[in-house]
Amino acid sequence: MSDDTTMSIETQAAGPYLVKGNVPLRRVRRVETTAGEPVAWQTVETHESQKNAALCRCGQSSNKPFCDGTHSDAEVDLQESAPRDSYADRAEALGGDPVTVVDDRTICEHAGFCGNERSNIWEMAAGDTDGPTAQLMAGMVEHCPSGALTYRVGDEQVEADLEQGIGVIEDGPLWVTGGIPVTRADGEPFETRNRMTLCRCGASGIKPLCDGSHADIGWSG
Question: Partner of 219 for a Cys bridge, out of 110, 148, 174, 214, CB 3.0 to 4.6 A?
């Protein structure tokens, strides 16, 4: 592939995310029940693909999700503190047979798809994970944007077939899908994964990854 078509995301020190390669960009929101429980993702707007784009990560651009240079004057600490080991090193198997759920709380975005008023994935993983329970757990895991939750069937790791792209989650992070390579500001590449979320509010404690801080501070964008 040429440089014009190879998708990538580069984190800039004290600056935006540089997105290269005509990465599809869309705004998405959670579809919720009357009880406020998320059940699906919905695309609400699709942006025209650009060869190169700069996406805000300080949280203060007036043209979100795009950068308008505000980071130069914003008093936001964008220093990176994301873990440098692999998902496999951090994650913990929650149990279950033949479907086993694996969880890394470190990178949880708190999207809320992992539980409802009747149960949650931790309780389900501790019991019989065959049949309808397995289907429900798989759906919960595959809706997890950060990839904090994954699952195995037997010894096989299973991932949803996600196209390369970026979802701009309403009032939340960037949802990077399809294994787009992401590089830290110091040039070190992140482990390439099918799903990950990047902070765009400027408040995460594990920048450039999201840790759910946008909800704690009531950020919108």
Answer: 214
Q: Is the pLDDT of residue 1 over 50?
A: no
Give, in order, the Cα–Cα distances in Å from 103 to each of 146, 152, 189, 206. 11, 11, 22, 17
* pLDDT for the residue numbered 128: 81
- For residues 182 and 193, give the distance between their C-alpha atoms in angstroms, rounded to a whole number: 9
Q: Write b or e for each residue in 112-143: b if 16 or more Cβ atoms lie within 10 A of its Cβ, otherwise e.
A: bbbebeeeebeebbeeebeeebbeebbebbbb
| 2 has a pLDDT exceeding 50 | no
Q: Summarize the confidence of residues 39-49 as an average pLDDT.
A: 94
Cβ count near 86 (within 10 Å): 12
Residues 6+ apart with CB under 8 A from 172: 109, 111, 197, 200, 210, 214, 215
| 164 in Cβ contact with 143 (< 8 Å) | no
Percentage helix, strand, coil for the chain under 3-state DSSP, each rounded to 5: 15, 30, 55
Residue 21 banded pLDDT, cuts 50, 70, 90: very high
Largest separation between any pair of C-alpha atoms in the chain: 55
Please say whether the beta carbons of 76 and 202 come within 8 A.
Answer: yes
Q: How many CA atoms lie within 13 A of 170 on its CB side?
A: 10
**What is the structure's pLDDT at 13?**
93
Helix (H, G, I), strand (E, B) or coil at 70: helix
Contact 143, 149 (CB under 8 A): no
